[in-house]
Amino acid sequence: MRILVTGGAGYIGSHTTALLRARGDFVVVFDSLELGYRQAIGDTPLVVGNTRDGALVKQVIGDHKLEAVIHFAAYKAAGESMTSPAKYFDNNVQGSLRLMEAACQAGARQFVFSSTAAVYGAPKTLPVRESDDLRPENPYGESKLIVERMLKWFGTCYGLRSVILRYFNAAGAALDGENGEDPRYVQNLIPVVMNVATGRTPMLRVFGTDYPTPDGTGIRDYIHVDDLARAHLNALDYLRAGGVTTTLNCGYGHGYSVREVLESVQRVAGKRLEIREEPRREGDPPALVAGAERIRKVLGWEPRLDDLDGIVRTALRWEERLQRSPW
Ligand SMILES: NC(=O)c1ccc[n+]([C@@H]2O[C@H](COP(=O)([O-])OP(=O)(O)OC[C@H]3O[C@@H](n4cnc5c(N)ncnc54)[C@H](O)[C@@H]3O)[C@@H](O)[C@H]2O)c1
Q1: CA of 144, closest atom in ligand 1
Q2: Which residues line ligand 1 (CB under 6 A)?
Q3: Quick one: pLDDT band at residue 164, thresholds 50, 70, 90?
Q4: C-alpha to C-alpha distance for 42 and 20, rounded to whole angstroms
Q5: What are phi and psi of 164, to 5 degrees?
Q6: Which residue lies with its CA nearest to atom 43 of ligand 1?
Q7: Ligand 1 centroid distance, CA of 13 (Å)
Q8: Which residues, other chains included, contact 142 with Cβ-Cβ below 8 Å and sequence gap of 6+?
């Protein structure tokens, strides 16, 4: 297939780009490079631009005769969105709207969208299913939910078919250690712990040790970035086969607590890490675990790298590689 990958120079986008190219798809990455790296995509064609520039998007899709869009480009820091909501609505909503409009005008009517478990807010029951209540608790989650809703209307009105993937916590790095998450902007626990393991930050702050979970710390569903990336290939195959617009959780269906992740990193890195226990952070649900049956049924996707120590090992290998030769 011929695919536009927005945000393709970022963490999940670059892993997806590598898998698409490995199976012979033609990819053009469209990225502002504000938070992404040219080095992450090798010799993949790259257009440096902003998704809010609809004219440029339309031209790129037309020039390269692209049939589908995978849309990763967005800001993703939930905490920052509470202090800068306009920044999130502008980039995530406005950027998606201009992109969707341009894609329809240029005739690329197959669309895969990076949504998030943050659309659920604090779920009442676990695992959380796609049909459960949507109550985002920050502008980041709200911005993604708005785009989900716009996509459904673009389907009805313009025939744009989409797969909306609600990611849980993407984690880990390429198996060859040559690509991974930018450690400077990480929010998720595994790369944050990794920064402590590699000495970039002195200690791990554990927020909340009195949650109603077995060890009192928060539980999240961590999915290896390569498994997550592969779900996008399956989503494209589904759309190419005529699949209708659908929404799917992307997670393993079970979670690990902060303490379990910490134990894993200490085991893999072979050292004890300093931690400081702090009160809960507002807006952090005690546990977030995906109901993960639907994606298996609809896309035929199956996890291959569901192993916490394995995820941590890839992340550590990437950190060590970055320390040897930074990007
Ligand atoms: N990492 C996670 O655990 C996670 C979880 C849920 C959802 N998501 C979503 O997945 C997507 C990718 O996340 P990531 O972790 O790879 O993030 P990332 O920050 O590594 O990548 C995002 C990329 O998009 C680019 N970008 C941002 N706004 C742009 C714009 N307007 N125009 C062009 N390029 C732009 C950045 O330069 C960057 O390369 C995001 O939409 C994020 O909200 C991520």
Answers
A1: 43
A2: 6-7, 9-13, 31-36, 50-52, 72-74, 76, 91, 95, 114, 116, 167, 169-170, 188
A3: very high
A4: 13
A5: -95, 115
A6: 76
A7: 7
A8: 89, 136
Instruction: Report how far residue 82's alpha carbon sits from residue 94's, in angstroms, rounded to the nearest whole number.
Output: 18
Which residues, in sequence order, are CB contacts of 186 under 8 Å at separation 6+?
A: 192, 194, 195
Q: Tell me how far the alpha carbon of residue 8 lies from the centroid of ligand 1, in angstroms.
A: 8
Closest to 259 in 3D by CA, of 200, 218, 289: 218
How many whole angstroms from 282 Cα to the centroid of ligand 1?
A: 23
Cβ-Cβ contacts under 8 Å for 157 (sequence gap 6 or more): none
- Which pLDDT band, with edges at 50, 70 and 90, does 326 fall under? confident
Which numeric CATH code is attached to 2-171+222-250? 3.40.50.720
Q: Where in the chain is the domain with CATH 3.90.25.10?
A: 183-220+253-324
CATH class of 183-220+253-324: alpha beta
Check residue 185 and give its pLDDT: 80
Residue intervals of the chain classified under CATH 3.40.50.720 are 2-171+222-250
Strands 219-220 and 256-257: antiparallel
- Ligand 1 atom closest to Cα of residue 140: 43
Q: Which residues are catalytic?
A: 140
pTM over the 0.85 mark: yes
Instruction: Over range 276-298, report the average pLDDT.
Output: 95
Could you tell me the pLDDT band of residue 97, with boundaries at 50, 70 and 90? Answer: very high
In this prediction, residue 147 has a pLDDT band, given cuts at 50, 70 and 90, of very high
Q: Are 146 and 216 in contact (CB under 8 A)?
A: no
Give the pLDDT score at 282. Answer: 82
> pLDDT tens digit string along 182-200?
988 888 899 899 889 988 8
